[in-house]
Amino acid sequence: MSTDRAVEAFRAAHGRDPEGVFSAPGRVNLIGEHTDHNEGHVLPFAVDRRTYVAAARRDDDRVAVRSDDPGTEPVELAVADLASATGWSAYPVGTLWALGVGQGWDLVVHGEVPLGAGLSSSAALESAVALAVAELTGRDLDRVALAEAGRRAENEVVGAPVGIMDQAASLLCREGSALLLDCRSMATEDVALGFEEAGLAVLVIDSRVRHDLADGGYADRRAGCVAAAEALGVPALRDATLPAVENLPEGAPKKRARHVVTEQARVHEVVGLVRAGRPEEVGPVLSASHASLRDDYEVSVPEVDAIVDAAVGAGALGARIMGGGFGGSVIALVPSTRVGPVSEACRGLRPEPTVREVAPSAGARRDA
């Protein structure tokens, strides 16, 4: 079991048992891409791939983090130096910093969320660490506060200007449902998807084109959104209207704003469809989202576009790029009877994508 692997790795590293093992899932965002940092709505769900953290407090001021992934190096540093963490350790160590820990910790990570594939392995790690700190120290922190800590770690320690969607999904989602999240008020609603009952499956197709949200492309898109909101005289693009956007001068801010405004509308369209018992009609909305992300937000790449075309051509009801963009994964809504043909069509591309079927799952939890 994954929990046992985390415990064994902790014992091997520290010669004692952890105080607890905590896990948190990756996520896919069904619809609502790049609306989160514009204070809009998103509709993610947690997936059945998790990151496990075995944790224990120390009686000194040292923090030691390690992973059983052979590609990572152990890191140890003082509590006073947490904000200076770099590399993979910036995610767990940054979360400790954001929570203001005042004592040492030993953390050992066993991850099963694929890295760089658009499933938000970073948020899964941050969320598992945040829950471990809250539960083991008895701090009265709700899950929204834990999500905020994960976002602050990414923003201020990792240097990635992401919104709060990923951490909120990892901490708050329920099995079988997506999370309708208002990224301004942090109000949430569970939205039962009904995909399984309708004979539908969700595929996540990893293009194997890697991306890094701390590089310039993501930040540039966010800057375009800020510029558009300022030009429109609104607090954020969630407050903009499409007619007002179309009156902006031609250029990148107008295109970024048009994507955000139309994507916000698509979130509510999808919620309405699944609540009306018409989940199969979600597919074309996904494809419309991809066209907007490709043409207006300009975060797709040829390898991803080829996957979308292959999936839809083989019977997917709709598909789109998800995550920060510039690579990563495609989400496709597929009749269960077409999972095989769609998977085969996508695997015929080069580089050969990795195809995974995912199911809406529960959020962060204590496992041991």
UniProtKB/TrEMBL annotation:
Record key words, sorted: ATP-binding, Carbohydrate metabolism, Galactose metabolism, Kinase, Nucleotide-binding, Transferase
Domain Galactokinase N-terminal: 8-57
Pfam families named in the record: GalKase_gal_bdg, GHMP_kinases_C, GHMP_kinases_N
InterPro entries in alphabetical order: Galactokinase, GalKase_N, GHMP_kinase_C_dom, GHMP_kinase_C_sf, GHMP_kinase_N_dom, GHMP_knse_ATP-bd_CS, Mevalonate/galactokinase, Ribosomal_Su5_D2-typ_SF
Gene3D superfamilies the UniProt entry points to: 3.30.230.10, GHMP kinase, C-terminal domain
EC number, as in UniProt: 2.7.1.6
Domain GHMP kinase C-terminal as annotated: residue spans: 273-338
GO molecular function, one term: galactokinase activity
GHMP kinase N-terminal domain: residues covered: 98-172
Domain of life: Bacteria
Family recorded in the similarity comment: Belongs to the GHMP kinase family. GalK subfamily.
PANTHER family: GALACTOKINASE-RELATED, MEVALONATE KINASE/GALACTOKINASE
Protein's name according to its UniProt entry: Galactokinase
Gene source species: Actinomycetospora aurantiaca
